[in-house]
Design goal:
This protein is α+β, with helices and mostly antiparallel strands. It contains nine helices and 19 strands. 23% of the residues lie in helices and 33% in strands. It is globular.
C-alpha cells in the first residue's frame, strides 16, 4: 500500500513537471497594460494631459504601420481598425489566403464593411445591401438586386491600401505624398518557423509618436531609467528600492543612421546584468529601426538567439499602440519568457515617463547628446509637405 502511494505521488509530480515544462517551452504568454483594451479611456486620457508641449510635429509620420497579427485575421475574417487618422477594413480571402486592406465605409450608404461584412473569395460584401467589392482593386463587382452596375461602378470604388504580410504581422503603407513603399525585410528564422512565438506584450502610450523611437538614440536615459534591478518593478517611483540594490544593469549603446537605406537606423547595444560585482548575464543586441513604426531586435546570449519585433501604431494624435513579439527556438521558450519579463518591466518604466512628459521640439542638448540631434534630423524625413498637422488631426476627433 505504501509503495503504491509513493508510486502515485511520483507519477503526479512527474506529470506536473512535464506540464510546467510544456507550458514554458510551447505556450505563448501575453501581457497588456490596464488601458490597452479600452479605446475610449485612451482618447479621454490623451485629452486630459495637463501639458502636451508647443509646436507639436505632425502626429502621423509616413511609413508602414501594423494593423494586426496574421493569426488575428483568419480566412473569411473581416475586421474594422481605425488608426493613423484613417478607417480600415482588413480581411483575408477564402480562396487565395491573401489579406486585403480597404477603406472601411461602403460608398452606397455608409455601412462599415468591417462590422458584419462577409468575405467571399477575394471580395467583401457589405452587410447593409450586399454590394460586393474586390479586395484587389476596391472596385464594385456586384449589386445583387440590380441588372447592371455600369451606372454607379465608376463612382462606387473604395480606396485600396497597399499592405504587406510579413514576419507574422500585417502592415499598411501610409504616405501623404503617395510615394512608393520601402521593403520590410523577411526574417528567415520566423519565415522558416525555426523560431516560434513565445509571447507578446502591448502598451498604450499617451505621447507624441516620435518620443518612443527617440529612446534608441537617448543613451543617457539608459542608466537613469533602466539601471536599477528589474526586481525593483516597473514603477519609477519605487524601482530603486534598497532591497534590490544588489543587482544592477549596465548599458552601452551607439545609434547611427543606415548608409544604404535612408529609412533605416541602427543601434548597437550591450547589456550586462550584475549581482554585486559579478557579471551574471550579457546580451549583445543588433537593433534596426525601419521607418517610424517598426523595429527588429536580434539578441545574442550565451544560450542562443532571441528575436523581438516592436510595432508602433498611432491610434490618435497622442495615443500610440506599442507592442513587442518574442521569437526563439522552441527549446529556448524559458529564456524568451524571461527576456519578455525583463523587457516588459523596462518598457513600462519608459511608458511612465512618456505618459507624463510634454513634447519638447527644441530640447537643450549638451555635446554628449549629439546622437539625439542626429536622430531628429534622420526622423524628420518621415514628415512631408502634406502631413496632417496636430491641429487638423485633433479636430477630426471633435464630432
Amino acid at each position: 500500500m505504501c509503495a503504491e502511494i509513493w508510486h502515485n505521488l511520483y507519477t503526479f509530480i512527474a506529470v506536473a513537471l512535464l506540464g510546467i515544462l510544456y507550458y514554458i517551452l510551447f505556450i505563448p504568454v501575453s501581457w497588456k497594460d490596464n488601458d490597452a483594451s479600452d479605446k475610449k479611456s485612451a482618447v479621454n486620457r490623451a485629452r486630459r494631459l495637463r501639458k502636451i508641449g508647443n509646436k507639436l510635429l505632425p502626429p502621423f509620420p509616413n511609413g508602414w504601420y501594423k494593423l494586426a497579427t496574421s493569426k488575428e485575421i483568419k480566412p473569411g475574417t473581416a475586421k474594422y481598425i481605425d488608426c493613423i487618422g484613417e478607417n480600415f477594413v482588413i480581411f483575408r480571402s477564402t480562396d487565395s489566403n491573401k489579406t486585403f486592406v480597404l477603406d472601411a465605409y461602403c460608398p452606397h450608404m455608409g455601412a462599415n464593411l468591417g462590422v458584419g461584412g462577409v468575405v467571399k473569395g477575394d471580395c467583401i460584401e457589405c452587410p447593409f445591401h450586399q454590394w460586393k467589392f474586390s479586395g484587389e482593386s476596391g472596385s464594385l463587382v456586384n449589386i445583387p438586386y440590380s441588372d447592371s452596375i455600369s451606372d454607379v461602378e465608376k463612382f462606387a470604388k473604395i480606396r485600396k491600401w497597399t499592405s504587406k504580410e510579413v514576419n507574422g504581422l500585417i502592415f499598411v503603407w501610409y504616405h501623404r505624398e503617395n510615394e512608393e513603399p520601402w521593403d520590410i525585410p523577411v526574417i528567415d528564422e520566423i519565415d522558416s518557423k525555426k523560431f516560434v512565438l513565445h509571447g507578446w506584450n502591448e502598451f498604450r502610450v499617451y505621447s507624441h509618436i516620435q518620443d518612443i523611437p527617440e529612446n534608441g538614440a537617448d543613451v543617457a536615459h539608459l542608466a537613469a531609467v533602466h539601471g536599477s534591478n528589474i526586481l525593483g518593478g516597473a514603477d519609477i517611483n519605487n524601482m530603486r528600492n534598497s532591497w534590490f540594490s544588489f543587482g544592477s544593469h549596465i548599458w552601452n549603446a551607439k545609434w547611427s543612421s543606415n548608409t544604404y537605406y535612408k529609412h533605416m537606423a541602427t543601434v548597437k547595444l550591450t547589456h550586462i546584468f550584475k549581482i554585486l560585482s559579478f557579471k551574471l548575464i550579457e546580451i549583445d543586441a543588433d537593433i534596426d529601426q525601419i521607418g517610424p513604426g517598426y523595429v527588429t531586435l536580434a539578441l545574442k546570449l550565451i544560450f542562443g538567439k532571441i528575436i523581438i519585433l516592436q510595432t508602433l501604431t498611432p491610434l490618435e494624435p497622442l495615443v500610440q499602440n506599442l507592442s513587442h513579439y518574442f521569437y526563439a527556438p522552441w527549446y529556448l521558450g524559458w529564456l524568451a519568457k524571461f527576456i519578455m519579463y525583463g523587457e516588459t518591466i523596462n518598457v513600462a518604466r519608459d511608458v511612465m515617463i512618456w505618459n507624463s512628459k510634454e513634447f519638447v521640439r527644441n530640447p537643450l542638448l549638451p555635446k554628449e547628446e549629439k546622437p539625439l540631434k542626429m536622430f531628429r534630423s534622420w526622423y524628420s524625413q518621415f514628415y512631408s509637405e502634406n502631413s496632417k498637422s496636430f491641429a487638423h488631426a485633433h479636430e477630426t476627433l471633435e464630432w
